Amino acid sequence: MRYYDELSYEEMAEILDTSVGALKASYHHAVTKIEEYLLNQSE
Question: Of 14, 34, 40, 43, which shows the fewest CB atoms inside 10 Å?
């Protein structure tokens, strides 16, 4: 939603019925997991 629909965190939080803080935390965890996966694939 952030990149494809270019929505702000506030707009995404409203759509997903969550707080902006919780959304940012979930986003951060997802990015971290993707980075770890990509690093492990290149080994």
Answer: 43
**Cβ atoms of residues 23 and 10 within 8 Å:** no
Is residue 15 a part of any domain in this protein? yes
Residue 30 lies in a domain: yes
DSSP states along 18-36: S-HHHHHHHHHHHHHHHHH
Q: Count of domains in the chain? A: 1
Per-residue pLDDT of 1-43, as tens digits, reads 877 889 999 999 999 999 999 999 998 999 999 999 999 997 6
